[in-house]
Amino acid sequence: MVRMNFVFQIFFAALLISGTALAQTPTTPVTKKIRTIIVDAGHGGKDFGAHGGYEGGLDSKEKNITLQIALKLVAELKKQLPDVKIIPTRTTDIYQSPPEKADIANENHGDLFICIHADAVALQTGRRQTGSHQETRYHVKKTGKGRRRKTTSTPYTVTVPTYEYYKIGSQRTGTSIWLFAAHKTKDKLDALLKNEELEIESGVDSVYNNIDFDTPEGRIRAKIYADRYQKKSIKLATMVDQEVDKTDRPALGLYQRQKGIWVLQATNMPAILIETGFITNHDDERYLNSEKGQQELAECIGRAVKKYKDDIDHTAAIAAVAEKQKASATDYNSEKNEKYTDRTKTILKRIDLKQANFKVDLYDDGDIDGDIVSVYFNGKAVLSNKTLTDKPLTLNLTADPDKTENELLIYAENEGTIKPNTALMVVTEGGNRTEVRITSDAKKNGVVLFIKK
Known about the structure:
Layout lengths: L18 H5 L12 E6 L20 H19 L4 E4 L9 H10 L4 E10 L2 E20 L6 E19 L6 E6 L5 H8 L4 E2 L16 H30 L5 E7 L4 H4 L5 E8 L3 H8 L1 H37 L16 E10 L3 E8 L7 E6 L2 E8 L5 E6 L6 E8 L8 E9 L2 E9 L3 E9 L1
Parallel strand pairs: 1-2, 1-3, 3-9, 6-8, 10-18
Antiparallel strand pairs: 3-7, 4-5, 6-9, 11-14, 11-16, 12-13, 12-15, 15-18, 16-17
């Protein structure tokens, strides 16, 4: 089998997602076990989605195909994962807007969101001659000059061909998995699709496919969201792609697009959208409408989800051990504030201050894996044994007027479940914002120096 699989960068410089989605992002560690899975049948009701409107096609509607595959997937997941709650967004032909689908997932505290769709491309128009017919035309002749100029038309008959026009089925075939990201993949898509225009979320109001994310605070939380959910989404998507590749179907790999897909960017959990096949392709359309094809896809996705759950549950067990170690740790107040002196200092950044007062926000950088830190400013503890999450730990600090350099030191109380201890520091001073990524472990402290001019 010829396999086309594009591997994307996992670390994104910036992931643009909606403020509404981020405002609802849960604070519980993402390492929790998989308890609830949301299965979404794309489109529905008045939203038909794509259809096989080409000559010789079945004229099938995407909303019906997605519902049948989703129902089979729900049954397959219940069989393979009897201890997991499986919640479909719809079980009948009803309309739900993308925000409503996302709300269902979020309100049910889903740990995983799987959206079922069918691909389509813009169909080209063909024509063929079906016969001929007589057509009257005119010879036009002008005579005379000035006011005496006259125009005469002489009719004559010609035989011309009669054409009929029809839509040509597309050549694209196969299953792909889509992720929400701001990483541009236009060149890759152009290379893949050539002259065919791919339709995603066809039938959905464009307001749900355009995301504008401008606030600095939002961009910071977006980066955390990317590390928290995106890598897990990539993990699941890769597993689904691998299972599809074991069948006779082309496994087209993983894709991201510049504009957001609402049900992916607004769900507070790892989320993927599976384009099961091309409804505008003769063979794919028949495969997607068949009981065999629908069941095969459901089983592929089900096996991938089970592998993903086993992997996540294993990580969650490790996190639970880390939490137990945290609970049994020695009370910080009984320790000497000078404990950080046992480790070397690594100066990560020097920041010039234009004013004495500034704010520091600390987040976990990457997976929320139980990193715990203490913070010292000019040798004094200003934060003690605090767990880093996607919500900021905020410090309002004032530079010592007698010091040229003011030292902010991050002491790792542990290294979480994923070594080393990592933090994202955002420094706000007046209208200036500076981001610093802090790494600390059992041997070294991360240090940022503030230079007061």
